[in-house]
Amino acid sequence: MGGEEVTDREREQRPGPRTRTRKRVAALLATAACTALLSACGSSGKGPVTLNWYVFPEPSGSFQAAATECSNNSHGAYNIKINFLSTSSDQQRVSLVRRLAASDSSIDILAMDVDWTAEFATAKWLKPVPANLAAQIKSTDLAGPVQTATWHNRLWAVPINSNTELLWYRKDLVPNPPTTWAQMIADANHLAAEGKPSYIEEQGAQYEGLTVWFNSLVDSAGGQILSPSNQVVLGRPAVIAASIMRQLATSKGADPSLNVSQEGPGQVAFQNGTAAFMINYPFVWSATQAGNPKVFKDMGYAPFPGVVPGVTPRVSIGGYNLGISAFSKHPDLAFQAVQCLIQPSNQSRNAIKGGLAPVAASIYDQPAFGKAYPFHQLIKQQLQNYGIRPQTPAYADVTLAIQKALSPTSNINPSTVVSSLTNKIKLSLSSSALL
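The structure corresponding to this sequence follows.
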């Protein structure tokens, strides 16, 4: 986001008891072998340097293709070795934190969820992006992805892909897509009364998707969860967000599995024909096309529904950024490799083959990308007018506090959510809570 453990280096066995002469001969032979095969001994600096890239197990092979091409085009400078982490973002973070906290120099490039930038930068686990590369990224990439890689006005990672949720709907059930959450819930209730598929698929399980949903609603209502100074600033926008979540959970449009639903099961429910609406990421387009062509032919797409009528919503964006470990022995080469990995040709392939939305603005105007993603301009628009989850070194605890306070969604009390959630987030920021 595939095994996440890396094979330990083989340790040379200690020689058994030998005469002093044999030991000296063995030492001389080893020295001669090292001199003749410098690259094998790894101490000469000659030959390609192995750069270890820790990343989620991207299934299409796009990352591996980019790593191979970049290695081949480095003229023998480096060889990128991919080390797959878990498919779970939480487990990816745990694996990387353990290694980085131990100053593990075997990590060169790490794919970081967009929410880890503040934590990893504050812990001094990352090399800051060089000024010339940072300027290039800011001039070519969309604003949202750039902000996710920024902490205290400095770029600490290089965006490689992004993500944003759209509204997907059944055109045979709803000729015109709803533009607000209130309208969508009303449409679902109307469909249910007619005995037609009516569910609204959304991520309501107690996991990161629940935080994404709440944060998108808060940002779209004009608010924030945390201020830039790390203060809890929940207010009326949080009440509006919580009210919408409860309204959906208690409506006829609520899938009975809402409180345990994640992205994948939501897509399957839509594909199976029980839902009229779905809030989800662009992977659902090709997945539904392959899974149920009959439903796919009536599948429409639209912007994320608004919270306040007439106000453009701001959707919490996802994706990954590439950081260079502060403990890497080859940071300059690692930054060179990253520059290659994010080339437009690689981002385009990542998008078309792997369903990973690009961060470079120019790719959204490429015909091949537009053909594969007919909704590409909606993605671009939402990555420019974006929402962003709280940027804080304590994000891992903050998101757990949010998830616990809002689950199950049917039990949310909008009148008390601000006070209760404020207290929980303050505790998580002060590390006083057992989260």
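The two ends are 23 Å apart (CA to CA).
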